[in-house]
Design brief:
72% of the residues lie in helices and 0% in strands. The protein is built from seven helices and no strands. It is elongated.
Amino acid sequence: MAAKISNNQGFIPKHGGYRNLISYQKAEIIYDGTVYFTNRFYRKTDRTVDQMVQAARSGKQNIAEASMASATSKETEIKLTNVAKASLEELMIDYEDFLRTWKLPVWEKDHRLTVRFRELNRTPNATYQTYLKAIENEKPEICANSMICLIKIVMYLLAKQIRQLEKDFLEYGGLRERMTKARIESRAKKQE
């Protein structure tokens, strides 16, 4: 998140680094899992395929774009992070629709496999391989519910990121404030 700016850093804060965000790493797994899922359970001509893959892609890409935009616009960073969250919500509804139309249950938060998935999620440096047996399970119920579990985790992380971005903005301000502060400090230095 944002760091306090000192004179030697300039007014443009460090930005990017989205590949280190757990939310981005897991959003990438969601994208890959969604491509697998749609290829397996839908006809290529089904419009749902494009919708689901685009929602998964939007979730991932907007995290990256928000991170890069953070250099000059905290407002854009917050908006794009929220767009990522909204895209994943849309994707989650598609997985819920799949379960409903296939007459399969959506797991509750205390379902034994949801609990197991949360344990699996604590694996450090988790990759697609970490979730492979769940995402590519022979049972459609496990595939779809696993994706829902993963989406809920990323949505939770994004909600935390948004709260932190809000807090950082209130504490450090945006680009205009940093530019003004840097200009005032520069003038003061010249006058010394």
